[in-house]
Amino acid sequence: MITNCAPCPRCGKLVSVNNLSSISDTLNNMLRKLRIECTLCGQTELLRGNFDDHINQECPNVRVSCPAMNNKCPWIGQRNDLKNHISTCVFHQPPLVVAEIAAATKLSTKDFLSKQPISFEEKSYYEECKEYYHITGKPLISIAEEVFDNNIELKSSSLKIGIDEECNQFDLQSFLTQFCNKLDINIDDIVVKQIQVGSSILEAEIPDKLGSNDKQLRLKMIYQSITDKLQEEFGKMKIFFLFMGPIKSLFKIQKYRTEIKLNPQYNRIYDRDYNYWEGPLHDGRDRGNKPYYCPIGWKRCSLYVTDKFYEKFKGWCICYHGTKFSNGLSILLSGLKPARIKAYGDGIYATPSVNYASHPRYSEIMPIDSSHQKTFFKSGKYLQFILECRVHPNNIKKTDEETLSVKDGTTIDSNIKNEDIEWVIDNRNKTIVDFNDPDSSIICTGLLIRVTDNHPGLLPQSQWWFNSHLCDYKKCCALGIDLDSLEGQRQHENKCNIIYE
């Protein structure tokens, strides 16, 4: 017999589901922020609200099916055994077939060389992508928002790949064989369209034999399979750029990026000997219904967004979005994705507090150690980026408390209450929000940079970090240093200074 009643696990009283009510948003948010342990793999410090992502994407001990299950492969096993299974799976097409097909077709670079010159916008964009590649060692990966919109019929599904190699040295067949092997796709699943001169810019398409939905699914699968490790492998193949989606969408990204220029007359250094104010700024400009406080310790590189900026963005509030070192340029080049960790629902997460955005959970702390980085930051040892943004008050869906498990009595920012420090920005159901588009719900007006002569965790304004969540797991807190080492320096009262150059 089916019943609607069950005993309460605490008191044993029989309770009917008809008498239960939904919990409040406040209580639900508190529950989502609880730190829990995965009983399958033993990983601790997982946010309860992100547990589904851990199980569906990361946990090595979750039982999964073979990707060739549609080919009737019966295998089911732990995720960490999947790679070994695929290497012997008779239902899964082995990489050798890709090489055999490539050899049979005898693809030649010269057969696809295009006489059409690269436009100024394309050339400028690719040069910036190369700069990103040279700094990070990884290609810039970009995907059109249409790929994630199931309501749009995908008429064109292109792959555009930039390779940092001259055309006369580029071996198309060898490259495609290696590229397809790494993505575990068949070489006949893509059709080469052309190769543009200069650096080898390879354009290919998902063939017309696949329907719109199949093309979208194929591009999604490719995009989701590109891990950090695979990006590093692509970097070794000299790939500096990879775009997936309709070519028209790429042209739009390139157009907006070309129109973004530095606006040096509004560059600022924020500190007592430079530009400084206490409390909310009252300079006669309308920045919406949220106060603007001095971002002390940061240098702003201002970006030109549009003519008559103060007319168009009158009443828009200033906020900040912390970012990883490799993501700073990537966000400006190809857009910002809504948060994967959705503590307060779907949207872009931002904050009115530059001090909150500087936490290593949000803003990666990058040691300045490579010769390429030394070119730009000559005297510093550590670097952080934060994006300065503008958002209209109507696009702020929600304000809520911090999500870093800060201990009671700890002040993150003396100007802003801990309970109001998170903003959720309406992303208008877009999978990727283009920061470069002046018609977006949120725009980027500048890049804030902080360079220090020692670890920024030693700064007075960073001491609240040690009363919040802080760990050595790089995907969670990008400290740029071992936490024990940082704690040791802090106990010895080592100092840190901000460098302005």
TrEMBL record:
Check the record and name the InterPro entries matching this protein. Znf_RING/FYVE/PHD (IPR013083), Znf_TRAF (IPR001293)
Q: Which UniProt keywords apply?
A: Metal-binding, Zinc, Zinc-finger
What Pfam family is a match, any one?
A: zf-TRAF
**Domain TRAF-type as annotated: residue spans:** 36-73
Listed Gene3D superfamilies: 3.90.228.10, Zinc/RING finger domain, C3HC4 (zinc finger)
Q: Does the keyword Zinc apply?
A: yes
Keyword Acyltransferase listed? The answer is: no
UniProt GO molecular function: zinc ion binding
Ranges annotated as TRAF-type zinc finger: 36-73
Name of the protein in its database record: TRAF-type domain-containing protein
Q: Which organism is it from?
A: Rotaria sordida
